[in-house]
Design goal:
Structural class: mainly beta
Number of helices: 9
Largest sheet: 12 strands, antiparallel
Strand order of the largest sheet: 19-20-21-22-23-24-25-26-27-28-29-30
Distance between the termini: 24 Å
Number of strands: 30
Length: 627
């Protein structure tokens, strides 16, 4: 094998920026170079033994892979050489390796990082030293978060963990995201991971629904209610050993989010702000009005028909309208955060206020977020108490962005396929012109003729208390509440084809969801000469409830009412719908961590879940770790 020179002990820093800061709804990519397969083996520098699960990533990309049981890997390089490989694993110093030639297989040696092995990592229902973790856990701290204009928590960790794929279903402000940890585990069921914020497992299903009134199928991002500036660390639990403590809900992986806490010392006041702009990187080349008319004439000539346009009409039409120029704009982003932290005696505190405003690069789209975070902590010899409260208000402005066809097409499809010879306005200069040839909405009519706004208020809070009954035994309680209230108001005015044919269409959708948590735990820690035992036993009860209400009508005498007077529509068009759902989860859990000589580790986890309306399910996982 070829030995390679390495830069030892460097921090892994990826500069991958989320694409949606440049592209709004879609992006195109293509390759002009041949792909290279790079193979090799990662070993321990002391004993030359294979290292399993090491992350091998091409720097500044999300292209990476984990080593197998033999420490081997095969990585497809999707860019031209030379490239820099970043190799890392918890407990080892990270390596940066310059690759100029993909000839013989590589042999990469990682050296142990003793300080890192003693670092404490958040795991399910507690913490552990890195050296004691037998499962697959990736810990990402503030120093490793992505930098730049970060709008949501998922952007902080994008490209930072091997085996974690983050994609955005819609690149509009606040658009939904999909996170896959080690791939999809189900064909037709939910594949999203479980989110745990400061020890509180939350239901992260979107509450603000997609609109059935306009063609807009994209989900919202439930993590919008969190301010990225309040995040201290993110731990990702990947395999069965790490996630078993959360039962069946952890089958798709678990993401543990820890918010910032105060520390002893004088009051610290911090103000952070940034301003950025967004633009479309590249527009799709379109036919001008002259080219469009000539093409239609050619098609009719081939079919033996008389051309539709005369040469004089073609010469005098000009360039026409490039509808992409009409709907795209420079999107401004601003963020302001004011925080207070400190502590004295046995009390510490962290208080944060945040305002975030993002204009989409498509006209009439945007998002505003108002966020407040309060974390309080108290600790003495016997008692420990933590209070975490997060409250957010999110205001969304939508434009139809679906990919349907004809009059149900979204604003992008309408802009791409609309007739370039069509004027923007009718002769009155106010009414949006509609094509008699192409069955598409005027793109500006979609942007300004549809009033589609959403408002979400979410507050989640939990209180965690611990009492040291004996030096070896700690009793704990965790009480949590997560409430969400969302409403979406949509009005399609008579300035659109659909609105004109129906006399105006209005709909209001309201969702209310709540989630309550009770957890009781007991933790036992004891050293017996060369043996150490860390045991956990617990009981959890969680209740979920959702309420849905919708109402709508159409055929209005005026567009002035918007959605504020549904009864002004024709009575025969009234629509009303409502629903309610409730679910309860009762669980018993246990975990034992055993170590011998601080060198050999064993973890056994048991959890039994009982859910209202579903059969009881028990998960048990035993994992071992040897040096």
């Amino acid at each position: 094998m070829t030995k390679v020179k390495k830069n030892v002990g460097k921090e892994i820093i990826l500069f991958g920026r989320p694409l949606y800061l440049v592209f709004f709804f879609f992006s195109f990519s293509f390759s002009l170079f041949s792909q290279t397969i790079l193979s090799g083996r990662v070993v321990d520098s002391k004993n030359q033994g294979p290292i399993f699960g090491a992350s091998v990533i091409v720097k500044s990309t999300t292209n990476g892979i984990a080593t197998d049981l033999n420490g081997e890997f095969k990585l497809e390089i999707r860019k031209e050489l030379p490239v820099t490989l970043l190799v890392s694993l918890i407990g080892y110093k990270s390596e940066e390796i310059e690759i100029y030639d993909a000839g013989e297989p590589l042999e990469i040696a990682l050296s142990e990082n003793a300080n890192l092995l003693d670092a404490v990592v958040v795991v399910g229902y507690g913490t552990q030293k890195r050296r004691e973790i037998t499962g697959s856990v990736t810990s990402i701290g503030q120093e490793s978060f992505n930098k730049g204009a970060i709008t949501s928590v998922d952007q902080l960790i994008s490209g930072r963990a091997a085996g974690v794929q983050i994609t955005q279903s819609s690149s509009e402000p606040g658009g939904g995201v999909s996170i896959r940890i080690r791939g999809a585990n189900s064909i037709n069921a939910n594949n999203e991971p479980l989110y745990v914020i400061d020890g509180f497992p939350i239901d992260n299903s979107p509450v603000l629904s997609s609109s059935s009134t306009v063609s807009e199928p994209a989900r919202r991002n439930p993590l919008n209610s969190l301010n990225p500036g309040d995040i201290e660390s993110v731990e990702i639990l990947k395999d069965a050993s790490a996630t078993a403590i959360y039962g069946s809900r952890g089958a798709n992986g678990v993401i543990l989010i820890t918010t910032k806490k105060g520390s002893a010392g004088k009051l610290k006041v911090s103000y952070n702000t940034y301003f950025s702009t967004q633009n479309v990187a590249k527009k799709i080349p379109m036919l001008s009005a002259k080219q469009y008319m000539s093409l239609l004439n050619d098609l009719q000539t081939e079919e033996g028909a008389t051309p539709e346009f005369t040469q004089e009409q073609i010469e005098t039409i000009g360039e026409g309208v490039n509808w992409q120029d009409e709907i795209f704009r420079t999107g401004n982003v601003q963020n302001h955060q004011l925080s207070f932290s400190g502590g004295q005696n046995n009390l510490n505190y962290y208080v944060s206020l945040n305002y975030f405003d993002q204009d989409g690069i498509v006209i009439s789209s945007g998002l505003k977020r108002y966020n407040g975070q309060v974390n309080l902590g108290y600790k003495d010899e016997k008692f420990k108490l933590n209070v975490n409260i997060n409250s957010a208000r999110i205001e969304d402005n939508f434009v139809p962005n679906g990919v349907s066809i004809n009059e149900n097409a979204g604003i992008l499809n309408s802009a791409i396929f609309q007739d370039p010879t069509l004027a923007i306005y009718e002769s009155d200069g106010k009414t949006y012109a509609q094509s008699s040839v192409v069955n598409l909405e005027n793109p500006l009519g979609l942007a300004y003729g549809i009033d589609d706004v959403g408002e979400t208020n979410r507050t989640f809070a939990n209180i965690k208390g611990e009492y040291t009954l004996f030096p070896e035994l700690i009793l704990g309680i965790n009480l949590g509440s997560d409430t969400q209230n969302a409403q979406r108001d949509t009005y399609i005015s008579k300035n659109t084809k659909r609105g004109a044919s129906a006399g105006g269409v209005a709909k209001v959708v309201s969702n209310y969801a709540k989630n309550y948590l009770l957890e009781l735990t007991a933790t036992f820690n004891k050293d017996f000469r060369n043996h150490h035992v860390d045991a956990l036993a617990g009981y959890t009860y969680q209740e979920f409830e959702g309420n849905y209400l919708s109402a709508g009508s159409s055929s209005y005498s005026t567009d002035a009412f918007l959605t504020y007077n549904l009864s002004a529509g024709t009575q025969s068009t009234y629509t009303v719908g409502s629903s309610r759902n409730k679910n309860q989860l009762l669980s018993y859990l246990g975990r034992v961590n055993y170590s011998f000589l601080n060198r050999y580790f064993l973890t056994a986890t048991l959890r039994s879940d009982g859910s209202y309306g579903l059969a009881k399910k028990t998960n048990m996982v035993i994992s071992l770790l040897f040096p």
